[in-house]
Amino acid sequence: MFADRANIIIRSGKGGDGHVSFRRELYVPNGGPDGGDGGRGGDVIFVVDEGINTLSDYRHRRKFKAGDGQEGGRRKCHGADGEDIILKVPAGTVVKDKESGKVILDMSNKKEPVVLLKGGRGGKGNQHYATPTMQAPKYAQPGGKAQELEVMLELKVIADVGLVGFPNVGKSTFLSRVTNANPKIANYHFTTLNPNLGVVDMDGSKGFVIADIPGIIEGASEGVGLGFEFLRHIERTKVMIHMVDGASVEGRDPIVDIHAITDELKKYNKEILEKPQVIAANKMDAMSETDRETVIDLLKEEFEPEGIKVFPISAVSGEGVKELLWHVQGLLDELPEGATEFEQEYELNFGEEEGGIFIGHPEEGLYTVEGPKVERMLGYTNLESERGFDFFQKFMKENGVIERLTEMGIEEGDTVRLYNLEFDYYR
């Protein structure tokens, strides 16, 4: 099955914790701190793989996780970095935030790998926290947190031209005539299930990619049938060809059909209708000269005042096809090169955790609060004065220490130790 949508959970690696250890060697009984740094967590990386054209790899696996960094070791040994995870996607893949549906990343024109989620930084070992007043720090920095996100991958076909129309108007026949595509052609009363892509090559021009967007039916913009799955492919195209059955072989009115499809496109995304449009009135070979002129005159009268040119063609005989293709090429030449890219709507902002305060619970009834931030605060605060003690209490509250101690289950009468200072905890 053609897979053009998948929901997955991605997670970067957690940074490894810094290590707490002290140099212990013969004849060096009081060696300094030698705890090593933790390793960096792995990144989540997206890369375009030209060899794949569906998202089928993501339909049966939901979670993708990078490796965690390892903890630092003794003797200043650095922990190993976590392994990156590389997610290969086809060109045209758009990454959206699952909850809001907003665009995070469009891989259409990305030639280089893109880091979407960064791994947590490695925590610093206790060797970094030695100071003249604290020569044996018993704390190290925890590793940075992992980042996790649920995203929706959508494949929007990259084609210069989108070919739209109701089923059985001759789109597949037209595509097989003008490109190297080999679509299945039959009198289906429903629709082709997959978008068919082909390249149009013409002497003296650059050529272009055309996509036969599966038949759109009324109600597609509301998800009727496979509406959403098909309509999203039109967003990427630069020019649209409306193909209609000019001969009304199945009793359809071509003008009514064009208005019906236009209404569906408008409901789905009105910006699509700002693209240049062309009408191809097909099956002219099945009409008399008089009927042909009548139909073409009616179509031109209805749509050419809106700037939409009408071309009578026959996908079977090839009549009028070259004129249509040259007109489309001219429209493309006036537009910027490169695939249409969706702007970022959702900015990832996980933030780096507030470092410098580490809270421990080494034994029943005892909690420790340490770290560079605490150490600096104690260095400039006189706890023996009323004003200084008030500042100390405010520091503990504003930096979330009291809240964290409460979460850890501290009770009245328990001891809170800040290095060589101890306090009894009371609410």
From TrEMBL:
GO cellular component, one term: cytoplasm
Principal subcellular localisation of the protein: cytoplasm
Cofactor(s) required for function per UniProt: Mg(2+)
EC number: 3.6.5.-
Residue span(s) of domain OCT: 349-427
Group of enzyme by EC: hydrolase
Residues binding Mg(2+), per UniProt: S172, T192
GO BP terms, alphabetized: ribosome biogenesis
Subcellular location: Cytoplasm
Statement: the UniProt record of this protein carries the keyword NAD: no
UniProtKB keywords: Cytoplasm, GTP-binding, Hydrolase, Magnesium, Metal-binding, Nucleotide-binding
InterPro entries xref list: G_OBG, GTP-bd, GTP-bd_Obg/CgtA, GTP-bd_prot_GTP1/OBG_C_sf, GTP1-OBG_CS, GTP1_OBG_dom, GTP1_OBG_dom_sf, OBG_GTPase
Residues in OBG-type G domain copies: 159-333
Chain positions recorded as GTP binding sites: 165-172, 190-194, 212-215, 282-285, 314-316
Domain annotation Obg: ranges: 1-158
CDD domains: Obg
UniProt superkingdom: Bacteria
GO molecular function: GTP binding; GTPase activity; magnesium ion binding
Family label: Belongs to the TRAFAC class OBG-HflX-like GTPase superfamily. OBG GTPase family.
Primary role: An essential GTPase which binds GTP, GDP and possibly (p)ppGpp with moderate affinity, with high nucleotide exchange rates and a fairly low GTP hydrolysis rate. Plays a role in control of the cell cycle, stress response, ribosome biogenesis and in those bacteria that undergo differentiation, in morphogenesis control.
Quaternary state and interactors: Monomer.
Protein name in UniProt: GTPase Obg
